[in-house]
Amino acid sequence: MFDTKYQTLFLVGFVVYIAVLILIGWLASRKKNTGENFLTGGRQLPFVLTFATIGATLVGTNSSIGVISNAFRQGFTVMVFVLGSLVGLLVMRIFTGARDKNFLTMSEEAQYYFGGKKIIRYVMGFVMLLVEIAWLGNHINGGATYLAYITGMDFMLAKLITALAFGIYVFIGGYLAVVWTDLIQFVLLLSGFAIIAVAAVPMAGGMGAITEAFAARSAAAAQSATPSVGPSALVQVLALTAATTMSIIGTPTHRTRIYTAKTSKTAARAFTTNAIMLTVYGILPVLIGMAAYTIAARENATAVLERPDFAFAYMATTVLGPVFGLFLLIAGLSATLSSADSDAISGVTILLTDIYPTVTKKRIAEKDYVKYSRISLVIFLALSFLMTLLADNIISYITKVIGALIPGIAVTMLLGRLMKRATWQGGLAAILSGTVLGFLYLFIAPLQTMIDQVIGGPAIPVTIVSLVFGVVVSLVTPRNTVSNDEALAAVFAGREAK
Fold it and tell me: Which of 219, 173, 174, 124 is CA-nearest to residue 410?
């Protein structure tokens, strides 16, 4: 835990920071948030805002906690995780043409790919709502980890404060508040990572000392009398990498960036530029994590050695001292908040565009969108908070909950976009088989133990099962004879009141 005499300083700084974000969100969105625009920002976002909101989510909870804590554990092998994000970003380029179709949600896009079948939209909508609840829970866990380390407050209370922190400005300003605050937070978190990395490596004794520390740990592990009961470090990293790649392809948040960009070319440039940015900055969280282990091992910092999720917070305070370290911890919180706000708005869009019409057979009136959006946001935050109870650390959350639920969605979208022979029955088989296996993994302890011990997480087996079912069922069912124009018309007809 951080020195208690600085707790008040951090909490006051955090409150002031959130107040500034709320003000920015309000100023950016006032008089522009009528009707559906509350969720889309008017669908005319320029390159800078699209790039920043993608990047702010990308360099978010996974990078600030996930990559750093994995590098703390396993060193440079976690660069495969960064590669997974890079692949996911580049693959997203093949979907940017969806901007020209004026979709609102990924389930509408999926319906279009699979012949305009309503059943695809309905199933995808419900599954994606679960995914967004899981992702938002992941970010709440991330922010709570920072707060718990710094203040020593109860972890549950830290989760509640984190949820309220981003929930307030999203509630007030909608999607425009999200993208403008993301721009501010993106600048903060990138500069924070760069400063910590530059300071951390020399403090650890240079790359030579870092290399020696990891070599010594590997040698000690090899000589340990305790037999291995799980997958190798490489297999664990590959499992997390698979979850990362599929999460970018299958997460509704990144589709929202496509649908709200000014043009399809704007969206494509934003994903490509983020891939370039990741190539440059991807090494920074890895270096921070490795330096953190080197320093913690040398100083016998047991709290961090036992809980690598605290590695970023430990480095910020240890390397740079309390005052400047607090600034960088706010940058770290920016990483989680900038990820959370985007998932919150995407989840609300799914709830109102896909779930509400499916259940009620009605469409929300344009004048009521803002009111219903805010009510839905409160419900969505509450559900995500409950989801965080499934895991108490970020790595298990990413590999278990996210890895179990997202690959089926990602495979379904890839089949619909790339496989000309894909049928709606095959799409349904892909999403259902992947989701069922994901839930079996989450709720059947022996199956979870077996998968974890063999392959380190559910992402790879769920991807394989979903792909096999999707391809096989598509090949044995009649070809799709619905034209693209007919499928698109079916999508827009599904928006109308029944």
Answer: 124
Residue with tokens 């470090």: 233
Pick the closest to residue 251 from 360, 133, 144, 368 (CA basis).
133
Q: Is 45 helix (H, G, I), strand (E, B) or coil?
A: strand
pTM tops 0.70:
yes
HSE toward the beta carbon, residue 126, CA cutoff 13 A: 12
Give the closest residue to 429 by CA, choosing from 311, 419, 25. 419
Q: 139 to each of 46, 80, 182, 381, 385, how far by Cα in Å?
A: 26, 22, 14, 11, 10
Q: From CA 181, how far away is CA 354, in angstroms rounded?
A: 27
8-state DSSP, 401: I
pLDDT value for 261: 95
CA triplet 64, 69, 72: central angle to 5 degrees? 130
pLDDT > 90? residue 388: no
The answer to whether the CB of 173 falls within 8 A of the CB of 26 is: yes
Helices 252-260 and 118-151 pack at an angle, to 10 degrees, of 110
d(CA 61, CA 332): 8
For 4, the token pair is 């208690």
Q: What is the C-alpha to C-alpha distance for residues 454 and 39, in angstroms, rounded to an integer?
A: 42
Dist. CA 336–CA 146, nearest whole Å: 10
What tokens appear for 354 in the block? 């896909």
For the stretch 211-223, pLDDT in tens is 999 888 877 766 6
Contacting residues for 148 by C-beta, under 8 A, at least 6 apart: 154, 155, 158
CA 394 to the chain's CA centroid: 11
pLDDT at position 325 is: 67
* Nearest one of 409, 343, 408, 353 to 380, comparing CA atoms: 343
The H or E element containing residue 265 is helix 264-281
CA distance 32 to 261: 16
Cα angle at 252 between 428 and 457, to 5 degrees? 75
Q: Count the neighbouring beta carbons within 10 Å of the beta carbon of residue 390.
A: 15
Asked if residue 240 has pLDDT above 90, the reply is no
Percent of the chain with pLDDT over 90: 33
Return d(Cα 282, Cα 292) in angstroms, integer. 16
Q: Output the CA–CA distances (angstroms, integers) from residue 54 to 239, 261, 311, 369, in the order listed.
A: 23, 11, 24, 25
How many residues make up the chain in this entry?
498
- Dmax of the chain from CA atoms? 69
Report the 10 Å Cβ neighbour count for 301: 17
Query: Can you name the residues that pair with 261 across neighbouring β-strands?
Result: 45
